[in-house]
Amino acid sequence: MDHKTPADFRPDFLWGAATSAYQVEGAWNEGGKGPSVQDARTNHPEGTTDFKVASDHYHRFEQDVELFAELGLKAYRLSIAWSRIVPDGDGPVNPEGIAFYHRLFDALLAHGIEPVLTVYHFDLPQALQDKGGWSSRVTIDAFERYCKVLFEEYGDKIKYWLTINEQNMMILHGAAIGTTAAGPGPGSGSGSGSGSENPKRELYRQNHHMMLAQARVTRLCHDMLQTAKIGPAPNISVVYPAGSHPDDVLAASDFNAIRNWLYLDMAVYGTYNPTAWAWMTAEGIAPEIAEGDLETLSAGRPDFLALNYYTTATVAAPLEGEAGAVEGGDQQLAVGERGVFRTVSNPHLARTEFGWEIDPVGFRSTLRDVHDRYRLPIMVTENGLGGYDTVEDGKVHDDYRVAYLSAHIEQMRLAVSDGVDVIGYHPWSAIDLISTHQGVSKRYGFIHVDREEFDLKDLGRLRKDSFFWYQQLIKSNGSA
Ligand code: BG6
């Protein structure tokens, strides 16, 4: 549908940018912080770094916030490292960790930048993982207690709260992003500490526990903070059928349910998506629902939906007798599910240097579908291009990043014209950081960080060309 005059973004639109704690902070064992599953992780692909120093934001946050202010950010989406606040996950609170985030939020607020806070972004405290992680209901209690500390400490500084980053990717691609033990591929990885014979059943038990945890803290947030707004932050992208064959259309509908609607239906309606539930039942992996769970799930309703979008997926009906889920894949490279779908490449889409398809129109479709289903305000909490940047004469000419982001912003604006209530947009990432599984060489930031995988150099900051482009775009409220 063409709009002759596309709508404007709302005047209070939150033009932001995003990071997560373990990917940017470094200082992994300083300031009383306990280890997280990301610190304990060993499956870094050859040639890529770990997260120990990252972008050294922990020591340089004042300088970084100055740069964010110069960029003109109205908001900054960041996460708190759970194990900085509660080093062993459910024991004593660490005053140094509490003080660090007070300083960071104060610096942002002093520059008029609204912090948008994710409470949990892939970095479960290792001590909790050792006790069974999300397989255990102990982790639900620990999560609620941790969030209570955050609401008490930061409730007067944070208006927008995000519960769990990409719960769907932790279930579908936990091995790639380091939240489950390396090993089996998507949809079949197992969490360490799991006691089940069927790793996939264990995963969907963990999923159920995360949903309970999310519902409990959503409710707690509403009870404790009257003006705060809270929502989930899954990775959402529409799934296309490879063709018009009804079996392909059905496969796309199934994967949409398993990948997207399972998570949003639960967050918004407090119920399992029927298609996803039927699939889990047929596979013998449906979680056990304990007494009181359904009441808990329906009592935590979000005020808005956050979503991360990078690309779409295209799928076809499974082939007869095909093994289905195979090893490999990551957040945007699904491979398939036995008897349900198989991923095919989309011939209409170009790809990034890291193989992710580029689909700005799919962004508009995704926003529309989410709006049509849930009718809640939407905040885009990630969208961006990972690429190999090069520094030439003190400059980074990342026109490919500008092209990616401007095409997506144009489609987001058309989605607003379609009636979608988009309240904010946070490109990934504010500053270069460590990719979930492809090191520092896969860069996303507006600000370059001078380091390589294993050579830390001086970790100096440099404004890329995209920095100046985004600065102008924010000034014009998205019409530049
Ligand atoms: C999202 C995550 O899946 O994608 C981020 O929330 C991540 O943590 C981003 O960094 C980009 O993915 P990657 O694998 O390129 O770092």
Tell me the layout of helices and strands.
Elements: E1 14-15, H1 21-24, H2 57-71, E2 75-79, H3 82-85, H4 95-110, E3 114-120, H5 126-130, H6 138-154, E4 160-165, H7 167-172, H8 174-177, H9 199-224, E5 229-233, E6 239-241, H10 246-269, H11 274-283, H12 293-298, E7 305-308, E8 313-316, E9 336-337, E10 341-343, H13 360-374, E11 378-382, H14 399-417, E12 422-425, E13 447-449, E14 461-463, H15 465-475
Parallel strand pairs: 1-12, 2-3, 3-4, 4-5, 6-8, 7-11, 11-12
Antiparallel strand pairs: 8-10, 9-10, 13-14
Helix pairs in contact: 2-4, 6-9, 10-11, 13-14
Bound molecules: 6-O-phosphono-beta-D-glucopyranose.
Q: What is the overall pLDDT average?
A: 94
| Strand line-up of the largest beta sheet | 1-12-11-7
The CATH architecture would be Alpha-Beta Barrel
The number of helical elements comes to 15
What labels would you give this structure?
4-stranded parallel β-sheet; 14 strands; alpha/beta; 480 residues; 15 helices
Offer a concise description of the structure.
The protein has 480 residues and is α/β, with parallel strands linked by helices. The chain has helices at 21-24, 57-71, 82-85, 95-110, 126-130, 138-154, 167-172, 174-177, 199-224, 246-269, 274-283, 293-298, 360-374, 399-417, 465-475; strands at 14-15, 75-79, 114-120, 160-165, 229-233, 239-241, 305-308, 313-316, 336-337, 341-343, 378-382, 422-425, 447-449, 461-463.
